[in-house]
């Protein structure tokens, strides 16, 4: 999860988020090189008269500054499209969880089980136990098995919401009357926090998301106890 004065992204927990972090670094390096080149050219213009005729009329220079930006855009677009298709691809999910947004809480239904569903409300500040996080803890966590592909079906009962967990690279809109789909795979166990990322009313800030990723054996024990 995030910590105070954090300047970068949260640590990646899923292969998709790792790819997104690598793409961010790749694009940021290109932006840094372009900015350095532009700054260097501006400094030359301010410190040099540049009266030579070959700099004022040069076919070669015009060709370079036309082709080079196109190549740079291709270097950015190809990795971006690759990650986009990876995020949309869901191959034989081991578990499906339906998430419904409400004003202002989330409800979850494990569709592979006959009767396993619950609502998830934020724990008020006055009821927090020592060590629990303000505005992020919920009364019912979403327990999921780690290392398995999980399909999340996301929709809403009332207004627009957005189901987002940054460390897993997930952010999917919850739209009334529409079922959106996202894939989730965690590489390690732990607690992962998120929040609604779409302004949905007066209590928009008070509908957190908590995922508890556990080994498959622990998940089976939990699901048996909930049924």
TrEMBL record:
Q: Name one Pfam family in it.
A: COX2
**According to its record, how does it sit in the membrane?**
Multi-pass membrane protein
Q: Specify whether Lipid metabolism is a keyword of the entry.
A: no
Give the UniProt entry's GO cellular component terms: mitochondrial inner membrane
Q: What positions does the domain Cytochrome oxidase subunit II copper A binding occupy?
A: 92-225
Q: How is the cofactor bound?
A: Binds a copper A center.
Which CDD domains is this protein grouped with? CcO_II_C (cd13912)
Which BP terms does GO give this entry? Answer: ATP synthesis coupled electron transport
Its transmembrane ranges are 27-46, 66-85
Keywords, A to Z, come to: Copper, Electron transport, Magnesium, Membrane, Metal-binding, Mitochondrion, Mitochondrion inner membrane, Respiratory chain, Translocase, Transmembrane, Transmembrane helix, Transport
- Catalytic reaction equation(s): 4 Fe(II)-[cytochrome c] + O2 + 8 H(+)(in) = 4 Fe(III)-[cytochrome c] + 2 H2O + 4 H(+)(out)
Residue span(s) of domain Cytochrome oxidase subunit II transmembrane region profile: 1-91
Q: Which family does it belong to?
A: Belongs to the cytochrome c oxidase subunit 2 family.
Q: Its biological function? A: Component of the cytochrome c oxidase, the last enzyme in the mitochondrial electron transport chain which drives oxidative phosphorylation. The respiratory chain contains 3 multisubunit complexes succinate dehydrogenase (complex II, CII), ubiquinol-cytochrome c oxidoreductase (cytochrome b-c1 complex, complex III, CIII) and cytochrome c oxidase (complex IV, CIV), that cooperate to transfer electrons derived from NADH and succinate to molecular oxygen, creating an electrochemical gradient over the inner membrane that drives transmembrane transport and the ATP synthase.
Q: What is this protein called?
A: Cytochrome c oxidase subunit 2
Organism for this UniProt entry: Petaurista hainana (Hainan giant flying squirrel)
């Amino acid at each position: 999860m995030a910590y105070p004065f954090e300047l970068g992204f949260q640590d990646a927990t899923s292969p998709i988020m790792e790819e997104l972090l690598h793409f961010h670094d790749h694009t940021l390096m290109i932006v840094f090189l372009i900015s350095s080149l532009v700054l260097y050219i501006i400094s030359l213009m301010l410190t040099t008269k540049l009266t030579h005729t070959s700099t004022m009329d040069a076919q070669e220079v015009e060709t370079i500054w036309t082709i080079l930006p196109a190549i740079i855009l291709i270097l950015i677009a190809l990795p971006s499209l690759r990650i986009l298709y990876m995020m949309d691809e869901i191959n034989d999910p081991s578990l499906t969880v339906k998430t419904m947004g409400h004003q202002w809480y989330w409800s979850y239904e494990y569709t592979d089980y006959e009767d396993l569903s619950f609502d998830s409300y934020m724990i008020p500040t006055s009821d927090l136990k020592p060590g629990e996080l303000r505005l992020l803890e919920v009364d019912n966590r979403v327990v999921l098995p780690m290392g398995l592909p999980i399909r999340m079906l996301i929709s809403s009962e009332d207004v627009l919401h957005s189901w987002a967990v940054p460390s897993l690279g997930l952010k999917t809109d919850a739209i009334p009357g529409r079922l959106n789909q996202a894939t989730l795979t965690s590489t390690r166990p732990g607690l992962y926090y998120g929040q609604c990322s779409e302004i949905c009313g007066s209590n928009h800030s008070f509908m957190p998301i908590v995922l508890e990723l556990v080994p498959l054996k622990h998940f089976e024990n939990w699901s048996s106890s909930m049924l």
